[in-house]
Amino acid sequence: MTSTSNTAISGLADVGDGVRIHYEERGTGDTVLLVHAGLYGDWFAPLLREPALDGHRIVRTHRSGYGASPRVDRHLTIADHARHCAAVLDRLGAGRSWIVGHSSGGAIALQTALDRPDLVAGLILLEPAPSPSGPAGAELGERVVGPAMAALGAGGAGAAARIFLDGVCGAHWAPLPVQRNGDGADAQLLADATYFFDDEIRAAIEWHLDPGAAAGLDRPVLIVHGARSPERTGAYAETAALLQGMLPDARCVELAGLGHAMPLEDPAAVAELVRTTVRGGAGAH
């Protein structure tokens, strides 16, 4: 079921340094910014249509290099992407907002909260990328990231993306982009994956959450992991537990039946979780 009560509008926001970020928004109320994972800029496209979020102002972006956001000719760090998120919120006059970050988008959400706490009411992190990480994160790098990068030279971004997403999501991810987002999704994923392997994977590897900074982050944080993810890797549950120990106002929740591709697997369930968390605010923690 999709919402027809609010029509989405879109635009390109100039966020400085020659960067323009494409965004879509709909609705009114508390602002919720959706920060997508790597490899594909439309992980969150179905959430924009979910009726559970009708009572909120929902903003989703294509991060620089993804989808309709032009790529820039330089390396972008996680802090750069976080600055772009903050600039979009500033341009839209959103005020204090909830940020939902998926995978590497979780790292960007955390960095945004650290850099611009004035803009952040709380965070919802959907299986944030494994930093901090432990043995399971190291195993994931050896089993998935290394082979994906090796395949990049031989088979291109498409082959590398399949290895990467099979490794973190399970093979059931493959039909989901087209099922949720239409016939152009596979071509979009290939274009986005090219940027991911060219630049963003480096940014994700470079980024580390400073424990001292994390201890000072006084916003409520919900860390979500999927019950199916351990079928592929224990890295996301491991990172969730480590983050819960580092952040002063964090709790973890598990979504039954879902894995790392959760925004495409069951957008209604993810939207409902976002709705209840945002409406509960700090009182949900």
From TrEMBL:
Domain of life, per lineage: Bacteria
Residue span(s) of domain AB hydrolase-1? 32-272
Q: Which InterPro entries match?
A: AB_hydrolase_1 (IPR000073), AB_hydrolase_fold (IPR029058), Carboxylesterase_BioH (IPR050228), Epox_hydrolase-like (IPR000639)
Supply the name of the protein.
Answer: AB hydrolase-1 domain-containing protein
Say which species the protein is native to. Pseudonocardia kongjuensis
